[in-house]
Amino acid sequence: DENLRRMLDAHSAVIESSASAIVTVTPDFRVATWNKAAVRIFGWSAEEALGGPALFVPPHRMENARELHRNVMQGAVISGTPGLGQCKDGRVITLSISAAPLHNPEGHSTGVVLNFLDTTDRTKAEEALRRNESLYRATFDQAAVGMHYASLDGRFIRVNPQYCRITGYSREELLQRSFRDVTHPDDLQADLEQLDRLVSGVGATVRLNQRCIRKDGSAVWVHATVSLLPSESGEPLHFVGVVEDVT
Description:
With 247 residues, the protein is of the alpha+beta class. The protein is built from eight helices and ten strands. It is rod-shaped and about 85 Å long.
């Protein structure tokens, strides 16, 4: 039938042009189809892969893979499950795995179709982001100077332990306050004018010598360096302050 042939040709073209490795595996766990993305991701040519065992499965994960194969053969559908893949050059990569059973016109199971999306770069980026976040958290919390984030209206968003020691307030208490509550009244107006200039785009940083009013009412002299953190669109997002007790 001409229409059926055209449909199958179109289907094959979609599989071959897919960015994901699309592989079909027979009931006895041998490779039946192997698209161009599978060659690119795993490294084996179609001639090397077709008819052979599932070389793309790391040896230590073979039993898991066979169990997944059995479950899908029995009708299970897998979508976006994280997993590992073995490459020809020995690398083990991270994958997002989807799988569904294949049936012949009589409804009998003839194998499994697998879709592999290489997530190695994304996984590395996420790990790097987690490491950077962990390093940032350690730097922020262990810094020898006071550090804080404050919204554009002056309310504290995040404060480190040293800033708590400078002000005499606990972290929870500061997060209920703004910098106005810890700034000496005689210094407040000059500080507000400087911060307004920063928000207006006049300069990237302001440096303030001021008195900080502690929780117990005493005043300490501090040197504060305040910058403005922009959003991705470039709009002012919040203030970042570094505060040193110079009493």
